[in-house]
Prior knowledge:
12-stranded mixed beta sheet, 38% helix
Amino acid sequence: MTTREHKSYKSLIISMLDKLPHINQWRRDFLIETFILFLSIRGRINFLQLGRYGKYKEQRYRQQFEKSFDFLTFNKELTSSQGSGKYVIAFDPSFINKSGKKTPGLSWYWSGCANQAKWGLEIGGLAAIDIDNHTAFHLEAVQTLNTDDQTLTDWYAGVISDRKETLMGISKYLVADAWFSKKPFTDQIVALEMHLISRLRDDADLKYLYKGPHTGKKGRPRKYDGKIISDDIDKEYFRFIFSNEEETVYAAEVYSKALKRNIMLVHVTYPKANGKDARKLYFSTDVSMDPSEVLLYYHSRFQIEFLYRDGKQHTGLNDSQARRENKLHFQFNASLTSINIAKAIHWLSIPKEERGAFSMSDIKTMNHNTLLLKRFIDVFGIRPYSTKNQNYVKELILYGTMAA
């Protein structure tokens, strides 16, 4: 982890804002200030805290959060400039704590942490998974506001459809967890000329494709050649991919009864100490896709969970005081976008072979120390850049960090 002054954040943010149209100087200054505060304030991050630590009054933050900002384009440009170039799009909903009854979108949503449905809000998060750097860049978080005349599946598919052009500029592959491996969602993603990578149920109804000779008799030619038993696959039909101590992988093009289409199926066996092997079924709607990449892309999907973890623990994803849709949208996306900025400055700037773990905790500690130190310098008239004081300033910025 490297130390950086706030001017490094400013340079990166300005370079991204320059690529967006219609951002005036007032709005530009506000965005720079806000992103840095999200990376510097310890504890809850809400309008009251922003007013305490920032250079603007609390009311100004409330007013500016109401105005729209194109987070998707901002983060796409940041991803393109900082990432490796090899990406897959990840989509994953996340539960957001929110009490009360008046906030739009309040309902019962599934919380993976609690393993039960809870009362609050939900966001559908889009991220670009950088395969080579093994990390995730946040793109946009959209609050779930599905209505009675629309299923949750259609709402999620609509979020992706509305952003198709931008997402296709990053990758044509969308990876989502096993909940999304259902026909209505898959059909809508394929209709967008994208491909879905996900996981099937362990007991999914799958069939071998018939590859034998045609009889020449009347009627429709034979299409299938029996049901696939996941515990006992036909290894003459399936292609061996690789095997090691942790997993054995086979793959084949098969027919999925639930999805009503042919898929590239990746069958993985995980040996267990008790002798009862576990088997998982991963798939891609692109039947020509390399099975190793199907497995790699799906496993890389979990990087989006680290974005939510860091957002909730360190950058105020759960802390919004707002009850209006625009303000909530700004809070959610400013929280997750600030992680992108921190990652680019402190982690991706280090050569790959020298990188340690990415720690938002240490970054928040360093930035909070910098925020307090700047205040002390301003009040006491200290010269921080003198030869005598430079080492002391660096020591104080790193005070309390663990990995630095």
